[in-house]
Amino acid sequence: MEASNQKIEAALHSYSEAVNWINGLIPFGVRPGLERIELLMERLGNPHRRLKFIHVAGTNGKGSTCAFLTKVLLECGYHTGTFTSPYITKFTNRFQYDGMDIPEETLLALSNRLLPLVKEIAESELGSPTMFEVSTAIAILYFAEVCYPDVVVWETGLGGRMDVTNIVTPIVSIITNIGFDHTDVLGDTIELIAREKAGIIKPGVPVVSCVDQPEAISVIKEQAENCRSSLYLLGEHFQFERISVHQTEQQIKFQGPFRELELSLTMAGEHQCRNAAGAMMALEVLRQYLAFVLEDDSLERGFRLTSWAGRLEMVSSEPRIVLDGAHNPEGAASLAKALVDSYSYRKLNLMMGMLSNKHHRSYLQHILPIVDTLILTEPDFRRKLDTDSLLSLVEELKALYAKPGLEIIVERDWKEALVLLESRTEPEDLGVVTGTLYMISDVRATLLHQTDSEKGW
Length: 457
What we know:
This protein is of the alpha/beta class. The two termini are 36 Å apart. Helix 5 (104-122) packs across helix 6 (131-147). The strands form three sheets. Strands 4-3-2-5-1-6-7-8 form an eight-stranded mixed beta sheet, sandwiched between helices. It has 16 helices and 17 strands.
């Protein structure tokens, strides 16, 4: 047995080897289903059953909602684990304890622990666990056996019902919103996508939702009723009012079933008010029914201090450059509204790079009406959309949606595109980089001079 352990320990020798091994599972794709993660957890003694989770699903806003929850819980004195994806800077960003990334040596040790089990399952009829399944297993082991948080903020990867993260039974579930993304896996109607997201609702576990389409609301109400779960729905059981908007801060008044509260947010955009309201309602459930101690001043400070990389993030002031990972129609609509509401500028210069599997037509319908200069480029990623395809779509939609005098520039190399954006954005102008988070990650690392940046899903 000792020799066997030595062999296992020697399998991966460094952090980079561990990350390369995990990313090497990407070709196995996204395979909805819980059989492999259930088997992994069973072999490990079901460590996830020892943790308290807040499970967050939705098309957009998951990451921001997780950020609000994490920051508020930390400010209120709770040791908090956070599992999110994709990451912006480094693979370790996915797994955080009290706001700090998992140490590289810990990720290496947990990878070596999982490696023989993954190989064993790969040789069975179930096939190899995927990259996201292994990442999820690492998160559970880290939280359950290394750092022991009071609560884990737990973001779904894709969908909900058949998502790997759905192996857990949370203390509260959140569904931020429903939109058209990953339709090849989740379905091509709001109702079908809502059914997948609503799959995170568990018997007796309260659920908070900010969805607004009648057909999505109907699906979520039905699922909550079937599970005998208390549902808190934005517009019915809680609401928010946007009191003031400035470039660096906005205020909302939250009204819930238990009380009213005013909150200041430094994250920009009305969509962040919705995300904050959903997070606040979930926190109210924890305070009211699970005896969480959330003092008002700590709670308010948590909301005010929340930030989230790559979401309406001002990364340069001279010139003014904002990064936003809007990559689907709903994200584009939120971005367009936020830029008009929250920023003042003479000209808006926008650089975009996309993946090939998104709804670009609807995306451009929201973006073209507000842009003065559009720079089309390509992310450095295997599933990128080429600029020729993107340009032909822009040309097709330009007459219907674009501002008069729209200037279109094509620069396939994203680094050269970024130089163009910076040089054309004068002091009174605003530069925006948007599209896939894979490109946002690269641009952010360049502008902030980060040398240890990695990127991946």
